[in-house]
């Protein structure tokens, strides 16, 4: 399958006559190819988007909504086609890929409805000393212009629609750069928008390696806002290149599950296992380390090991939970973290077995703070267990991380839970639940190396606008 890029309401081959090949993480061979577009084609996509944005912003919000409602219908009509491609391209099970399309439809609908119910404000001058009732400010939220949306491989439809839908509802045009691994699903998602009759150039799709066209896009003077989800290193790089435009960045994480002695260990075990190992841990919000207090450490470790042993391992086509990771580079990196930990004295409770890109779920006990796996994000099925003497030590270790996405605290003492939650330097804290982004209307925030800005439907809508003030000076 060789897919074109999308510009001017048309599907085009690049004049470069070059493509980027996409390899399946779990089966031999190429699953598809996308266009390696040229810089001139990037220029054209941005120029046409800037022109189209003006008319798009002139439509009423309800008129824009009609296109997005149709997008939902078309997306759901293509659900199985997209799910099949997503499975082959990023190695997610067909059922999970279907759920991702459904979740995206819900997310688009929520964006539409939330945007329709956003209102402008007005302010009276009288509230400020010396001010007057005759001076009234009307504060409107206006679009930013052309939004550059860059998404990662792991949720190629959901994390893309989470950027595109709010941008469109608020009257922006979008340049969409899908992750190369994930671009086939991303392009199919835009095919649904095309079928929905979206006016030409309101969304243009640019494809090619991020390392080749990425900097050019990010530095482009026609881009008015960047919304990015991906790795922390890429995020820092983009932030250093971007011009003076608003940035929303959701990056990597090292989310801890802190387990205190009075926790419901059965609940904690279930949440940790699904948090750490679903989709092989390839979620930014996966639980990436366990910080368990000494008193219950042996018991929790045994319970976790027993559950890991039950995980299904293999091909997404066989509905496995632990599937091959996205590519060999990633598998090598994960194995490097495991090897380093073993060398420094960690005990392998399960796993440390590799077949190609398939890393068996690996539970590591006796993990100490000199091991890389205590700090680095594997983005794979590896879970280190670190013992702590009390909640204060857990807070200290959690906060030493370069990341600050989410954390979980398991305890039956709500006061203690709040005490720990308050001190954790993360965007969110989950009490007695696994770390996760959803439901998609909750604010989703990364701090420190995990990002800047806030996603989640209402916040995403706001982030795609700026305030515009018109002051009435009544006589
Ligand atoms: N906090 C969050 O919400 C989430 C964070 N992530 C994080 O993302 C990472 C995994 O995703 P992955 O796709 O591998 O992340 P990458 O950072 O490798 O890539 C993300 C996107 O950035 C593009 N890109 C690469 N280089 C540049 C550049 N110089 N300029 C502009 N764009 C560029 C990529 O394109 P190309 O593919 O063509 O190289 C891709 O579209 C993990 O670290 C994970 O934690 C993932 C999901 C959610
Ligand atoms: O990329 C990710 O990890 C997603 O944002 C995860 O979403 P979820 O936590 O709701 O599964």
TrEMBL record:
Matching PROSITE patterns: ALDEHYDE_DEHYDR_CYS, ALDEHYDE_DEHYDR_GLU
tRNA-binding is among the record's keywords: no
Record has Plastid as a keyword: no
Keywords for the protein's UniProt record, in alphabetical order: Oxidoreductase
SUPFAM superfamilies: ALDH-like
Span of domain Aldehyde dehydrogenase: 11-468
InterPro entries linked to this entry: Ald_DH/histidinol_DH, Ald_DH_C, Ald_DH_CS_CYS, Ald_DH_CS_GLU, Ald_DH_N, Aldehyde_DH_dom, ALDH-related_metabolic_enz
Position of the signal peptide: none
TM regions (residue ranges): none
Active site: 250
Sequence similarity: Belongs to the aldehyde dehydrogenase family.
Annotated protein name in UniProt: NADP-dependent glyceraldehyde-3-phosphate dehydrogenase
Organism listed in the record: Brevibacillus halotolerans
């Amino acid at each position: 399958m060789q897919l074109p890029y999308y510009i001017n309401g048309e599907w085009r081959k690049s004049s470069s006559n070059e493509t980027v090949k996409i390899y399946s993480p779990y089966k031999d061979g190429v699953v598809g190819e996308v266009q390696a577009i040229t810089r001139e084609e990037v220029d054209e996509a941005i120029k046409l988007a800037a022109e189209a944005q003006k008319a798009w912003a002139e439509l009423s919000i309800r008129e824009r909504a009609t296109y997005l409602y149709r997008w939902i219908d078309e997306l759901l009509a293509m659900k199985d086609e997209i799910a099949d491609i997503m499975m082959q391209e990023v190695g997610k099970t067909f059922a999970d890929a279907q759920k991702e399309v459904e979740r995206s439809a819900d997310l688009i609908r929520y964006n539409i409805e939330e945007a329709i119910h956003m209102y402008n404000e007005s302010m009276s001058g009288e509230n400020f000393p010396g001010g007057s009732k005759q001076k009234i400010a009307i504060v409107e939220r206006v679009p930013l212009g052309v939004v550059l949306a860059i998404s990662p491989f792991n949720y190629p439809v959901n994390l893309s629609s989470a950027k595109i839908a709010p941008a469109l509802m608020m009257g922006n045009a979008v340049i969409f750069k899908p992750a190369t691994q994930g671009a086939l699903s991303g392009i199919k998602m835009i095919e649904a928008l095309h079928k929905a009759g979206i006016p030409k150039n309101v969304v243009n799709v640019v494809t090619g390696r991020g390392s080749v066209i990425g900097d050019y896009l990010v530095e482009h003077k026609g881009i008015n806002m960047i919304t990015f989800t991906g790795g922390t290193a890429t995020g820092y790089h983009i932030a250093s290149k971007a011009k003076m435009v608003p940035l929303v960045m959701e990056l990597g994480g090292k989310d801890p599950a802190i387990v205190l002695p009075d926790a419901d260990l059965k609940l904690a075990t279930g949440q940790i296992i699904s948090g750490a190992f679903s989709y092989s841990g390839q979620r930014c919000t996966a639980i990436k380390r366990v910080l368990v207090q000494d008193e219950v450490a042996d018991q929790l470790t045994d319970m976790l090991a027993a559950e890991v042993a039950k995980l299904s391992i293999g091909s997404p086509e066989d509905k496995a939970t632990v599937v091959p990771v996205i590519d060999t580079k990633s598998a090598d990196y994960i194995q490097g973290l495991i090897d380093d930990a073993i060398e420094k004295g960690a005990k392998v409770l399960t796993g440390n077995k590799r077949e190609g890109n398939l890393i068996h779920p690996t539970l590591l006990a006796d993990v100490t703070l000199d091991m890389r796996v205590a700090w680095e994000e594997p983005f794979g099925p590896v879970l280190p267990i670190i013992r702590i003497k009390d909640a204060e030590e857990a807070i200290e270790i959690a906060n030493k991380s370069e990341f600050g996405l989410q954390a979980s605290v398991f305890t039956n003492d709500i006061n203690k839970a709040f005490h720990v939650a308050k001190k954790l330097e993360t965007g969110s804290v989950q009490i007695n639940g696994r770390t996760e982004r959803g439901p998609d209307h909750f604010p989703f925030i990364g701090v420190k190396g995990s990002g800047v800005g806030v996603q989640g439907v209402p916040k995403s809508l706001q982030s795609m606008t700026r305030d515009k003030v018109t002051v009435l000076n009544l006589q």
